[in-house]
Amino acid sequence: MSAIVSKRLSRFAAILVAALSVFLASAAALEKAPLTEYRARRASLAREIAGRALYLEASPESELVKYYPEPNFYYLTGFEEPSAALLIDATQTPPVEYLFLPARNLSEERWTGVKLGPGPESARATGFESVLPLDQARAKLVELGEGNVLTSKNRDVMRRIAAMRQVKSASEIALIEKAVDITMKGLRSAALAIAPGAREYEVEAALEFEFRKNGAERPGFPSIVGSGPYSTILHYNKSERRMESGDLVVVDVGAEYSGYTADVTRTFPVSGKFTPRQREIYQIVLDAQKAAIAAIRPGARIRDVHAAAVSVIRAKGYNQYFIHGTSHHMGLEVHDVGDTNRALEVGMVITAEPGIYIPEESLGVRIEDDLVVTPDGARLLSTLPREIDDIEKLMKR
């Protein structure tokens, strides 16, 4: 090899090492649970499936579409690049785990940016003992035998992972709190953008700007900004209507931060002041939410929380206008996985979101907050004002 060629190759290798170092530094800077926590989750699952193996694949990459990690894969690995695979081999004692990654494609990385590939550097970055080429995964599965390998199509193993995901660790709760804090900043900005003559999409743009400005990756679900007649449509997300004086506008949004999603709703009067009728309905919903929150404690079930909210709304004669459940689990997905009949436990994060929707009056009210179950009840994560007078003060410019 000539000295010139050798020098060029050395320079190219140095560039690759530098690029990978920058990549690893930026990846480490992303806020996640400690690598030991992901390892502990995999170890716990390995005990659940002892004698068998689990094979999970990450979501594939789509060109010109922002990548979204598959939640179960992310929960077990903390790895957020496409086309990876995880193998937990619990047929052995102790269990052995592998992360499989596609080989690096240097010409492709000019378009997509530097990616991790198989090798010891990736093992250090991900906390796996072995990070192997993806094309070796098939041979491992054949070696194990098809009957011994569980996949995402296996309902039992998916239920087990869902049960694990229902109880959040301290690091998960901290990430959810950051998602909630960002969401509240977005809602404060939304309150100031609401005015007669403004379009719903202006409100949506104001709040989603705050999401990105404060470090959220994206909205955790399509933002709902529904005014007037659309305040009564639960999942309206067109955000097209021009708001009018006398309308209410329901703003149901959640920022996603480090994979975890918030879900907070406030109902605002477009004119800045609630009418007497709007105050009446709003207060009923608020009282129902307070009753629901008071019912959240270890041992209670989501149906108990719902019953507490329904009892308030029924007593006022509006039960037929309350058309959805009061609570759902929240985490890596806005409606997080898991058995909703399971008794609440310390560390679970749920919503409390009663509502009344009267289409014939174009009047819809929903108030939603996020709470973590504590040993003696629940702690409110979303502290944005919700009393009538406070909402009106929030809207003053």
Question: Mind explaining what this structure looks like?
Answer:
There is one protein chain. By secondary structure, this protein is an alpha+beta fold. The chain contains twelve helices and 16 strands. The protein has helices spanning 3-29, 35-48, 71-77, 106-112, 120-126, 137-144, 155-166, 170-193, 200-213, 276-294, 302-315, 388-394, and strands at 53-57, 85-89, 96-101, 131-133, 149-150, 218-219, 224-227, 248-253, 255-257, 260-261, 264-269, 349-352, 355-358, 363-366, 369-374, 377-380. Strands 4-3-2-1-5 form a five-stranded mixed β-sheet. Helix 8 runs antiparallel to helix 9 and helix 10 runs antiparallel to helix 11. The longest helix has 27 residues, at 3-29. The chain is globular and about 70 Å long. The chain starts with a helix and ends with a helix. The model is unreliable at 4-29 (pLDDT under 50).
